[in-house]
Amino acid sequence: MTPVLHTERLTFRPYRPEDEDVFVALLRDEEVCRWMGQERVPEADLRTLFRAILTDVYPQRRFDVWGLWREEVYVGHAEVKKTGNVDGHELITALAPEYWGRGLGTEVVRGLLRHAADDLGLKEAYGMVGADNTASLAMARRLGFRHVRDVVGDDGTVTKMVVVSTTDPD
């Protein structure tokens, strides 16, 4: 079962049915989609995805996925799951734009790395960061991620695949 995690300012909590609207709003936000390197998904599809988290992902223990909360306010989304790009696990994070620039992204990734090492026994973790996302790339470098390769999408966009050891995330 996906555990509840805590960092200095955040609680990583498995989603509950009542979290559907905040999940959908985050993943429909144009800025969030832009920096995640994805098109805006129709609301109905996001609602279907959210329900699948509750009815399939959690019961089948497919991967860990959380809503991120700061003092009971939803601030974002996080996942640790197998990636098809390499033989390993990917960290996925998305923060609501009003929480950017406050160090929460760094805090989320450190929390995910601690979980990956301590609870999942992973030796390394991957991330996929859009080549234009200079803030996230700078954060990744500060946290010790190193560039593995560029992945070019069908539309020509470039995403940087990065990797970090989970045994020394700082």
Automatic annotation (TrEMBL):
Its EC number is 2.3.-.-. The keyword ATP-binding does not apply. Transmembrane segments: none annotated. Gene3D superfamilies: 3.40.630.30. InterPro entries: Acyl_CoA_acyltransferase (IPR016181), GNAT_dom (IPR000182), N-acetyltransferase (IPR051531). Residues 10-169 form the N-acetyltransferase domain. One of its GO terms (molecular function) is acyltransferase activity. SUPFAM superfamilies: Acyl-CoA N-acyltransferases (Nat). Keywords: Acyltransferase, Transferase. This is GNAT family N-acetyltransferase. It comes from Streptomyces chlorus.
